[in-house]
UniProtKB/TrEMBL annotation:
<dbReference type="GO" id="GO:0032993">
    <property type="term" value="C:protein-DNA complex"/>
</dbReference>
<dbReference type="InterPro" id="IPR036390">
    <property type="entry name" value="WH_DNA-bd_sf"/>
</dbReference>
<dbReference type="Pfam" id="PF00126">
    <property type="entry name" value="HTH_1"/>
</dbReference>
<dbReference type="GO" id="GO:0003677">
    <property type="term" value="F:DNA binding"/>
</dbReference>
<dbReference type="InterPro" id="IPR005119">
    <property type="entry name" value="LysR_subst-bd"/>
</dbReference>
<dbReference type="InterPro" id="IPR036388">
    <property type="entry name" value="WH-like_DNA-bd_sf"/>
</dbReference>
<dbReference type="Pfam" id="PF03466">
    <property type="entry name" value="LysR_substrate"/>
</dbReference>
<protein>
    <submittedName>
        <fullName>HTH-type transcriptional regulator CynR</fullName>
    </submittedName>
</protein>
<feature type="domain" description="HTH lysR-type">
    <location>
        <begin position="17"/>
        <end position="74"/>
    </location>
</feature>
<comment type="similarity">
    <text>Belongs to the LysR transcriptional regulatory family.</text>
</comment>
<keyword id="KW-0238">DNA-binding</keyword>
<dbReference type="InterPro" id="IPR000847">
    <property type="entry name" value="LysR_HTH_N"/>
</dbReference>
<keyword id="KW-0804">Transcription</keyword>
<dbReference type="GO" id="GO:0003700">
    <property type="term" value="F:DNA-binding transcription factor activity"/>
</dbReference>
<keyword id="KW-0805">Transcription regulation</keyword>
Amino acid sequence: MTKRPAPDPPAMPPRQPTLRQLRGFKEVARHASFSRAAQALALSQPALSSAIRELETLMGVALFERSTHHVRLTPAGLAARAQIEWLLNTYTQGADDLQRLLDTQAATVRIGCIPSTMHLLAPVVAQWRLRHPETVLILSDHLNDELMAALNNGELDIGLGLDFGLAPGVAAAFVAEDELVAVLAATHRLSRRAAVTWQDLKHEPLAVLSRGSTYEMIVSTLRQQGADLAATDTLNYTDTLYSLVRAGLRVGLISRLYTQGQRQDGLAIVPVHRPQMTRRICLMTRAPESQARAAVQRCYAELAGMLRGRAEPSA
């Protein structure tokens, strides 16, 4: 009688990095110093060094270059940094959500947007909350680069922002197209035009908002048109821009979305053409739909449909 071979023992599951190791990596990467990272974590430096060595052994690759003068990430460490931060953020957010769920039986969805889109987002969020009172929505505003970073690292579940090329793993639903407009005093010589060109504005005293992707687009176009950038004011707030325009001191260049909901008495809003500058507004989420929490899946799908139905086409 042939003896059957003994079955292979079950494979041991692969070891996973611990939270202690991942938090150690994050702080060393942030501080570029083992001693400062150890202080931030309230650990001894030998304990932190040991945790990083264990993580590197587990991953099979060096994550930091160490010398007596510096600590910096290796190429592998740089590649891993965003994913490790995402793992930590989603763990922390998930633990907070779990506690809130146990306390109130409510799921949580974190939504961010760029400031110019809040007037689009807020009304549909209000409607959505009436339909789903069991879900807690946490809203925040960000510059577009910050918004994308927060989606990538897990701080946000859903974002409403600009599609300038999506990172791997980010899904997007087109919501609306935005365009650049000139904001002029109603008495300005160009205020009755159906549209103005960049050449029309070349010698006008201009004002633009100083931060964000739209600023870079405007400055690049003005340079191409040979405009005097020294005569262009860069401002931090829309209220300042509107005040200067109303007084006839400046012509404002701004996204049309920033004009929605603003008091427009004494002003003219005129599209800028040749070239026309537009931006795609998209609702985005990082996790593939099949992997997202049920509350995030439902919220993302329903908000996308509501936003597309509400957004007005550019004039």
